[in-house]
Design goal:
Blueprint: E1 3-16, E2 23-25, H1 52-61, E3 65-68, E4 92-94, E5 99-101, H2 107-117, E6 120-125, H3 132-143, H4 149-156, E7 167-170, H5 185-202, E8 207-210, H6 223-232, E9 238-245, H7 252-256, H8 258-279, E10 287-295, H9 302-306, H10 326-341, E11 346-352, E12 361-363, E13 369-371, H11 375-384, E14 388-395, E15 398-401, E16 405-408, E17 410-417, E18 420-427, E19 434-441, E20 448-454, E21 480-482, E22 485-490, E23 494-500
Parallel strand pairs: 1-19, 2-3, 2-11, 3-6, 6-7, 7-8, 8-9, 9-10, 10-11
Antiparallel strand pairs: 1-14, 4-5, 12-13, 14-17, 15-16, 17-18, 18-23, 19-22, 20-23, 21-22
Helix pairs in contact: 3-4, 3-5, 5-6, 6-8, 8-10, 10-11
Bound molecules: alpha-L-arabinofuranose.
């Protein structure tokens, strides 16, 4: 059996893991909001219309922050439509997803839901079709104590306490030609800088995210980040990154190695941000908000294309409802490994999305809510990855990929904190199991507390309405540890997490 050797030391951390890395994303898209988190007629609905069965799953998932309300949706959104008496809220056409937006859910409903979910809100501002003044109005409404027109309006609408939102995205995917109000890096950079300065004049403690690239393959990638940061470096804290992966033309090997792309993406954005830092002779470091990432079968995207015409604007249509397989969950787990390996720069991330739309949680109207295969690596990683991520050395056999060349068949990250240590591993080889030795310096006294593995004889197996529990994590009983030497066997196409005691 091929063997791999991994080394990590508690004396060589990459950086502390921001809890915000375990964030997610709720967009007014398809059935994410309506019939997803919100379904007033559902038997489990609370007084605000939130499905309690979904809230239970969201808490189990361990989501720390939730980005809202888009996505592409935000670039045509008027936040004012979603506040005030329900019967007065306007019905709008959402151009991004060619759907009808009833505005039954807005800022107040989201704030209630977020509090119930135990997560922190991360709001996106419309910088596609709106500007600084509307952004200031939104900030006044959400964050200012009463005593001004819009904060008083919030109080009159039922929330005397400010929502206190810290993290704000300055627009969404402004580099993408599909985005309403898409513009050049130069134009966006100037607008983002002006908006950030204005927002900070009202609330200096905000944490602001400038739009980075919608993907590493965007033609403007790199230049976009440089130009935007040249305009906004002193005004923002984060630059965003978005990435979605799927097997293209049946190229499963490259798909299994998607985390290589994510690694290169993160490292390129960090290098670009640091180049601007040098140019500006700045002491400040810009962090990455990886605020959209997932496996997404984008080739099925033409669902939206079919929703065209002046009289075809469905409410909460079934859009982007990808059903995730075992292979997808393994790739997904490896993307989480990539995020953790870059804990020093990725200080925020949002799994896109949370419910029904390319999501770990699925629902049926009036019916059940269930976990997709991708639910498990997220929930297990969010729970076990504590403290610091440690730098790992990997010596493993390679697999050949059309997109990324030869890449190690095994990838891993080790974390270590007050509550324990953990090792996360992926075997991307399609046919060979791997025996892996993990040398854990500084963890000589550690013992195994739990193991979890995603693997299956049927790599296409998935959880569906009919078979909601078909795929479950199982224990990896091959794992042993002695004097800080962990040995484990990884089946082909598998993801494993091993929880350890602190080691002292
Ligand atoms: O997550 C789905 C969509 O993907 C988002 O609306 C957009 O930002 C991205 O292109």
């Amino acid at each position: 059996m091929p063997e791999a050797r991994i080394t990590a030391s508690t004396a060589a951390p990459v950086g502390s893991i921001s809890r915000r890395v375990f964030g997610s994303f709720v967009e007014h898209l398809g059935r994410c909001v309506y019939d997803g988190i919100h379904e007033p007629g559902h038997p489990t609905a609370d007084e605000h219309g939130s499905r309690r069965d979904v809230l239970d799953l969201v808490r189990e998932l361990g989501v720390t922050t939730v980005r809202y309300p888009g996505g592409n949706f935000v670039s045509g959104y008027r936040w004012e439509d979603g506040v005030g008496p329900l019967e007065d809220r306007p019905v709008r056409r959402d151009l991004a997803w060619h759907s009808t937006e009833t505005n039954e859910v807005g800022l107040h409903e989201f704030a209630h839901w977020n509090a119930a979910a135990g997560s922190e809100a991360m709001l996106a501002i419309n910088l596609g079709t709106r500007g600084e003044l509307e952004a200031l109005d939104l900030l006044e409404y959400t964050n200012l104590p009463t005593g001004s027109a819009l904060s008083d309006q919030r109080a009159a609408n039922g929330s005397p306490e400010a929502f206190g939102v810290k993290m704000w995205c300055l627009g969404n995917e402004m580099d993408g030609p599909w985005q309403l109000g898409h513009r050049s890096a130069e134009d966006y950079g100037k607008l983002a800088s002006r908006t950030a300065k204005a927002l900070r004049q009202m609330d200096p403690d905000l944490e602001l995210v400038a739009c980075g690239s919608s993907g590493r393959s965007m033609p403007t990638f790199g230049t976009w980040e440089r130009v935007v940061l040249e305009h906004t470096y002193d005004d923002v804290d984060f630059i965003s990154a978005h990435a979605y992966y799927e097997p293209l033309d049946g190229d499963v090997d490259s798909f299994l190695a998607s985390a290589v792309d994510m690694d290169r993406f993160i490292e390129a954005v960090a290098a670009t941000a640091d180049a601007v830092k040098a140019e500006k002779r700045s002491d400040k470091t810009i962090y990455i908000s990886f605020d959209e990432w997932n496996v997404w079968y984008l080739t099925r995207y033409e669902q939206v294309e079919r929703l065209k015409g002046l009289d075809n604007w469905p409410k909460a249509p079934r859009l982007l409802e990808d059903v995730y397989s075992v292979t997808d969950a393994v790739v997904f787990g490896s993307l989480m490994i990539s995020l953790l390996k870059h804990a020093d720069r990725v200080r925020s991330a949002s799994l896109a999305q949370l419910v029904n739309v390319i999501a770990p949680i699925m629902t049926e109207p009036g019916g059940p809510a269930w976990r997709q295969t991708t639910f498990f690596p997220f929930a297990i990683t969010a729970r076990l990855a504590q403290g610091e991520a440690l730098r790992v050395g990997i010596d493993a056999p390679t697999i050949s990929t059309a997109k990324f060349g030869e890449v190690p068949a095994v990838d891993a990250v080790v974390t270590h904190g007050d509550e324990g240590a953990a090792v996360f591993l992926v075997n991307r080889h399609r046919t060979e199991p791997m025996t892996v030795q993990v040398v854990l310096e500084g963890l000589q006294g550690a013992s195994i507390t739990e193991t979890h593995m995603i693997a299956d004889d049927d790599l296409d197996a998935a959880n569906t309405l009919e078979h909601q529990d078909r795929v479950q994590p199982v224990a990896n009983d091959t794992a042993t540890i002695e004097d800080g030497l962990l040995t484990v066997t990884l089946p082909p196409v598998s993801w494993t997490a091993i929880g350890l005691t602190r080691g002292d």
